[in-house]
Amino acid sequence: MNPIRLAIRSLLFLSFILIFIFSLRAQQSGIRWSADGKSYLHIDQNEIIKTILPANTKEIFVSRKQLTPAGKSVPLEIYSYSLSADAKKVLIYTNTKKVWRINTRGDYWILNLSDNSLKKLGASRPESSLMFAKFSPDGAKVAYVSEYNIYVEDIASGTIKPLTTDGNRKFINGTFDWVYEEEFACRDGIRWSPDGKSIAFWQLDATGTRDFYMINNTDSVYSHVTPVEYPKVGQSPSACRIGVVEVASTKTTWMKVDGDPRQHYIVRLEYIPGTNDLLLQQLNRKQNESTIIRCNASTGLAQVIFTEKDNAWVDVYTPAGVENAYDVDFKHNIYWLAGGKEFLWASEKDGWRHLYRISIDGKKELLVTAGAYDVIAQKLIDEKNGYVYYLSSPTNATQKYLYRIKLDGKGKPERVTPTTLEGTHNYDISPGGAFAQHSFTNSYTKPVTELISLSRHAPLNEKESIASKLTKAQDEKITEFFKVKTEDGVEMDGWMVKPKNFDANKKYPVVFFVYTEPWGQNVIDSYGSSTNILYAGNMRDDGYIYISLDNRGTPAPKGAAWRKSIYRKIGVINIRDQAMGAKEISKWPFVDASRIAVWGWSGGASATLNLMFQYPDIYTTGIAVAAVANQLTYDNIYQERYMGLPQENMQDFINGSPITYAKNLIGNLLYIHGTGDDNVHYQNAEMLINELVKYNKQFQFMAYPNRTHSLAEGEGTFAHLATLYTDYLKAHCPPGAK
Question: What's the pLDDT score for residue 642?
């Protein structure tokens, strides 16, 4: 699917990733580099096109004709694809279905490029039930998950062999439960061994995890109940263990990882190159201790090689990892060096997110990057020339640039991105580092891409360069970036869009867009970052000032102290930062302090409620969509990572929950929630309503029947939501200058 279309769809789905997904995911190339880095594949009009570099010669690699099954006139629609190691077979993923967040269930077909034969896998399995299909190293077999069990299919004979048989909704083989997928982006739970004789896999036992019941009252005259295994904060997670199953015998060996399997998480799993041993990452229940473990796949013996502890939490992946997590093929990859004798690891243990070289025996550790800056995302290891390439922005937390540094830890960071284009850059670099697809955007430039020679950072084709596209890609520069310092001495980045024909001698209403939690950064220099998708019209034309601020605790590249100051203080420190920022902005001569509105979705809706309830003297109008009104209703992985265990610090959860302060409501509140929300449960709405009713607090409420967290289902939903939002804002925080 076109990555920009996908980005826009994501915008409509989740407001809390509104900016993040647009600015980052819209730039993803959707290309697959060849092993030698001299060509790449991409999907164009439902065909797979091969581009050979540097000449940029294009040829059809897989045509629509090749994708058309025998006896059919319509080709398979490619959702995703992969190649066998020898590139002679193509695995086509099609007819997909959403599981929770993305389409990870569907049909797989094998296209043999030698004879153009096209064969559907899983003939005995239900339609659209296959997940995570992948070739064996020799390309003779395919492994996949179907209905919670793991299968191997011989391509030549079509023989399907079950490797597990005990799987069900509560006993999960090769994939994950709801909360692992939502909070760790863990979905694909199978890994082929390098010799192709066995498969390593996750097994989750959710029998001890209580169900939360989703009630559908709209599709029949009797209600339908959908159970979801959902561990609330304070409840133990599903038991997790790693098995290695032999393909020939189906014998499973379980890895002997220390600890109670219901008091830990395993979030990474890979075979060590050149061996049949495994490397996995284990987190304790509180997620403040990470352990890297080497396991003998034959015996299950486990050896701890590296441990990291944090006073707050250990990050599993970076914001750029979140970007990739919405891809169906996403994995938490381990980056190997020296043929598997070392790996590159990101850690914040010195106060900044830096890269370390760690030996496979754990005896050697070398800091590769150093200094008062964060490595935002690793992009390429060029071991031949001794460099690692990474994204960073040492001087401006709203932007991203490519840097490189020597792998021996002795060099200094070298900026690769030219200084001529300020904004957000991303790179998909070829193996070996000869070429890259370079993407660029900023607040007034739509995402544009070019193919470059990385060593010169020069376009391969001037006519297709970013420079040649800028004029058409650039809009009017309407977004202003600024910094505001609060009375607490906290300096925050912000963006602002002023009304059209702005007159500094007049006063205007301000609408704040908030998220505020550790899962999202709003203030980034990228196209669309200051767009309000729920406003039916143009806020500039109508006379609103639109502003967003990034408080402490947001995942900006400002160091671990900035990000982790929010530990056990969600709903407190972030809310005060936002309120004190708004207080300073209210003093600006062109701001009408009597017309201050705030809105957000998900965590941003929680912030909206807290701001309305805790600082009713600042905010006159609030619109909250799908809020966590009571932190004790949300899932254990997210809440416990950032807030601790309620059994140990219950008061922190009470202090941070909007429901605690609902009695203070003075202004105008519109609360919106979908009754079929499997993420932030609708019970939050009913709990909050009860509290507001208790204190006779008047407000407006809209429930969307059987809609999920995205409110994307049902004919006319988005138009209705946008109209509701806009009409309420205009009625209670009127636009225009005074």
Answer: 98
How many C-beta neighbours within 10 Å does residue 263 have?
Answer: 13
CB-based contacts of 112, cutoff 8 Å, min separation 6: 88, 89, 118, 119
> Backbone phi, then psi, for 334, in 5-degree steps?
-100, 135
SS3 state at 47: strand
pLDDT tens profile 391-404: 999 999 999 999 99
Whole-angstrom CA distances from 578 to 15, 549, 589, 597 are: 18, 7, 19, 12
The CB-based long-range contact list for 472-480 (8 Å cut-off, 24+ gap) reads 473/445, 473/446, 473/447, 473/448, 474/444, 474/445, 474/446, 475/444, 475/445, 475/446, 475/527, 476/444, 477/443, 477/444, 478/443, 478/444, 478/530, 478/540, 479/443, 479/444, 479/529, 479/530
List Cα–Cα distances, 129 to 122, 148, 641, in angstroms: 9, 10, 33
Task: Please give the Cα distance from 604 to 15 (Å, whole number).
Answer: 8
- State the amino acid at position 240 in one-letter form: C
- H-run or E-run covering 601: strand 591-601
Amino acid 6: pLDDT? 32
Query: The domain containing residue 609 runs over which residues?
Result: 479-732
- Placement of tokens 């995570």 in the chain: 132
Half-sphere CA count of 5, side-chain side, radius 13 A: 3
CA-to-CA distance for 692 and 703, rounded, in angstroms? 16
Residue after which a domain boundary falls, among 182, 212, 247: 247
The closest of 178, 164, 93, 98 to 134, measured between CA atoms, is 93
Report which DSSP code applies to 21: I
Taking alpha carbons only, the member of 308, 274, 306 closest to residue 292 is 306
Residues with Cβ within 8 Å of residue 717, at least 6 apart in sequence: 704, 707, 711
What per-residue confidence (pLDDT) applies to 447?
Answer: 97
Alpha helices in 216-356 (DSSP H): 319-324
Provide the domain count of the chain: 2
What is the C-alpha to C-alpha distance for residues 83 and 420, in angstroms, rounded to an integer? 38
> Are 504 and 590 contacting, i.e. CB atoms less than 8 angstroms apart?
yes
* 190 belongs to a structural domain: yes
The CA R_g of the chain, rounded to the nearest whole Å, is: 26
Asked if residue 328 lies in contact with residue 130, where contact means CB atoms within 8 angstroms, the answer is: no
Contact 224, 216 (CB under 8 A): yes
Closest CA to 557 of 712, 408, 369: 369
The answer to the question of residue 561 being in a domain is yes
User: What are the strands of the beta sheet with 424-429, ordered from one edge?
Assistant: 424-429, 435-442, 445-453, 458-459
Find tokens 């109008």 and name the residue: 621
Of 451, 453, 449, 450, the residue nearest 441 (C-alpha)? 449
Euclidean distance between CA atoms 611 and 572, whole angstroms = 10
In angstroms, rounded to a whole number, what is the distance separating the alpha carbons of residues 585 and 618? 11
CATH number at residue 588: 3.40.50.1820
Residue 152 lies in a domain: yes
By residue count, the chain amounts to 738
Residues in the chain with pLDDT values less than 50: 1-29
Helix, strand, coil shares, percent, the chain, to 5: 20, 35, 45
CATH number at residue 93: 2.140.10.30
Phi and psi of 24, rounded to 5°? -100, -50
In degrees, to the nearest 5, what angle opens at C-alpha 721 toward C-alphas 444 and 8? 35
Evaluate whether residue 439 is within a structural domain: no
The predicted pLDDT at position 319 comes to 65
Helix, strand or coil for residue 483?
Answer: strand
Tens-digit pLDDT profile for residues 617-636: 999 999 999 999 999 999 99
Q: Residue 13 has what pLDDT? A: 35
Tokens coding 490: 């906290």
Q: Which of 214, 247, 280 is the last residue of a domain?
A: 247
Instruction: Give the full edge-to-edge strand order of the sheet including 508-513.
Output: 479-485, 491-497, 545-550, 508-513, 591-601, 621-625, 668-674, 700-704
